[in-house]
Every structure is written in structure tokens, then in C-alpha cells.
Amino acid sequence: MNEETIKILEELSKEMDIKIEILSYGWIFKLSKGDKVHYITGNFDINKTPSSKIASDKYATYEVLKTQNISVINHVMIFNPEERKNYIKENNIWDVVEKEFKKQGKLVIKPNYGYEGKDVFLCKTIDDVRKIVKYLLNKNNSISICPFYEIKKEYRAFYLDGEISLIYEKEKPFVIGNGKDKIKDLIKDLRLPHNEIVRNNLSKMDLEYVPRNSEKIELSWKHNLHGGATAKVLKKDDDIYKKIEELAIKAGSALDITFATIDIINTNNNELYVLEINSGVATGIFSKKVENGRKLAKDMYRKVLEKVFEI
Ligand SMILES: Nc1ncnc2c1ncn2[C@@H]1O[C@H](COP(=O)(O)OP(=O)(O)O)[C@@H](O)[C@H]1O
Ligand SMILES: [Mg+2]
To answer: E strands along 219-305, which residues?
Structure first.
């Protein structure tokens, strides 16, 4: 758990008369109040174990939602032939991969247990597809291939026990040219996170390039806050709020999950799809970078603790 979230939980524990102990080098948070004890290990213990496990696996989430007719982005499962060699012949995976590429043109390929946009690749040629599938199968038991969706906006809904407490929209990181500054200077104002994902994205760009006046340069095709995307709280009276809320509630209850964030995309054709569900809820960057974000995150965790301790 990140520092900001730990501080929020410590503050709430004080306010709510909950004792908090940190065990196992910071991995376990033990919360106790009276004779009740609860643990947080990245995940709160209000989710049933199978629901958390389904949420942590992108393909499993897809299938659970799809079979309940909930709009979700398409996934095709690729098992690692090494791990599953008694069940699946390697030939099959390349047939499946090629067929998907021919059908879709562009593919997004990702580990089923990924997070923060790590190792999520957009492939536009069959050579890229083959290279990335091989690369990912070297370190993952299974991966998913998805069609590339043209995303207009991506949203994150905070789901707790059948209700949505907060939705924010994410925007990919970008700079706007002024005809004189280089990309490397324009990005200084963005205060991008210092991490490998950002370094990787920037390494693929010509940072010396001077964008024309008003030219928009996107720094990533992904919407992860860890990659520098920005968040903006969605107002309840925004037209799309109700639609996102409705789909997120359907998805949360379909997974039989209690506490999770539900990521939803709105495509250029104005179609909504669930992208993924996370039971390990993260608010670190949101708290730090969004105006009033810390208070909103704290209010959200307060509701979770009230639920956990049945207050
Ligand atoms: N099929 C897709 N089409 C277009 N963009 C995608 C697709 N899948 C993922 N993305 C982009 O990549 C980002 C990371 O993918 P995601 O599946 O959420 O993995 P992670 O768990 O690593 O965040 C998403 O936020 C989205 O912007
Ligand atoms: Mg994601």
C-alpha cells in the first residue's frame, strides 16, 4: 500500500477508534476494534476470496461478465504452452493469435494478472504480435489478446456493496505545442511520475521535436495514472455519470464483489464497456494530484471501514 493511503488509514483509525498494527514488513495491516479483527493485505477482507481472484484475472473477469450479458471488452485467452503442455499444443496458440490479428487488425496484448499498465502492448503488425506473445509467455502463465478499442474517455468507478461512491475520468498524458518549446521542455509542467513506465514511453519519442502551435502530442496510448494520465472527478449531474454508475453496479454485482474499482471505457462510437475490475483499490496518485482528491479518498475509505466493522 502506498504512503498516502497508509496515512489516510491511520487517520481514520484514530478517528474511528480502531487500533492499527503493521506486520510482516508492511505487508499486513491488522485492524482491531473491541473483539473484532480485520486484515488488509492490499485487499480488504470484505471480498470473498473467489471474487477477488476473478477480479485479479482479466480473462476470468471477462468471462464472468460476458456470461451475464454485461458489456465488457473482448478477450481471447492464450495459455502458456509450457505450463499447459499436457493440455494444449503450442501450434494452437499461433493459429489463434493469427486469426485474431487478421480479424481485428490491431491487438492489445496483456498479462492476465497485470497492473498499472505494465506489459500492456499495442501491436499493429503480425511480427509485433508474435514478438510480444513470446515475450509475455516467458514470464506469465496466461495472457489475453483483445481488439484495440478507440477510447474517447476512460472512467474509474469506486464500488462498495452495490453503490458507487465516486467516479473519475482519466485522460491520457499529452502536451500542446507552442511552436518554440521542445517536447522535453513542455513535459516539465506535467510533473510526470518517475517510473519505468513513463521512462519507457518517453524513450520511444523524439523529445527534441518542437510541436507546432496547438499541436497535440500524446505521450502514451494508455490511461494509467502511473503512466502520467490525469484524473478528474466526474460530476453526478454529468450525462454520462448515470450510465457509468449503472454499468459499474451491474459488473460489481455480477462478480459478487463487495469493494472494488471498476474501469469502464467509452469508445469513439459512444459504447461503454467494462475494461477491468480491481479488488486491490489504489488511490495514491489520485489523492496527491487531484484537487480535493485526498478528502474524497478518505471519505471513501471511511465508508469501507464502517462496512468492515459494521459500524
Ligand atoms: N483493448 C484495448 N483497447 C484500447 N486500449 C486498451 C485496451 N486494453 C487496455 N487499454 C489501455 O491500456 C491501459 C492498461 O490496460 P489494463 O487492461 O487496464 O491493464 P492494467 O491492469 O495494467 O491497468 C488501459 O487503461 C487502457 O487505456
Ligand atoms: Mg488498468
So the answer is: 230-233, 259-267, 272-278
What share of the chain in percent tops pLDDT 70? 99
The pLDDT-based confidence of 81 (bands split at 50, 70, 90) is confident
**Residue 303, phi then psi, degrees to nearest 5:** -60, -35
Cα(264) to centroid of ligand 2, in Å?
A: 10
pLDDT for the residue numbered 283: 93
Specify the ligand 1 atom closest to the Cα of 73.
1
Q: Which residue has the cell 451475464?
A: 68
Q: Which fold has domain 76-147?
A: Dna Ligase; domain 1 (3.30.1490)
**Backbone torsions φ then ψ of 191, nearest 5 degrees:** 45, 60
Verify whether ligand 1 is closer than 6 Å to residue 224 (CB atom): yes
Domain boundaries, the chain: 47-73+151-172+225-311, 76-147, 177-220
pLDDT of 91 over the 70 cut = no
**β-bridge partners, 110:** 144
272-276: long-range contacts, CB 8 A cutoff, minimum separation 24: 272/71, 272/243, 272/244, 272/247, 273/71, 273/72, 273/73, 273/149, 274/61, 274/65, 274/70, 274/71, 274/72, 274/73, 274/247, 274/248, 275/72, 275/73, 275/154, 276/58, 276/61
Whole-number pLDDT of residue 264: 98
132-190: per-residue pLDDT in tens? 999 999 999 999 999 999 999 999 999 999 999 999 999 999 999 999 999 999 999 89
pLDDT for 82: 83
Measured from the CA of 149, which atom of ligand 1 is nearest? Answer: 3
Domain 47-73+151-172+225-311 fold: D-amino Acid Aminotransferase; Chain A, domain 1 (3.30.470)
Cβ of 118 less than 6 Å from ligand 1: yes
Going from the Cα of 172 to the center of ligand 1, the distance in angstroms, rounded, reads: 11
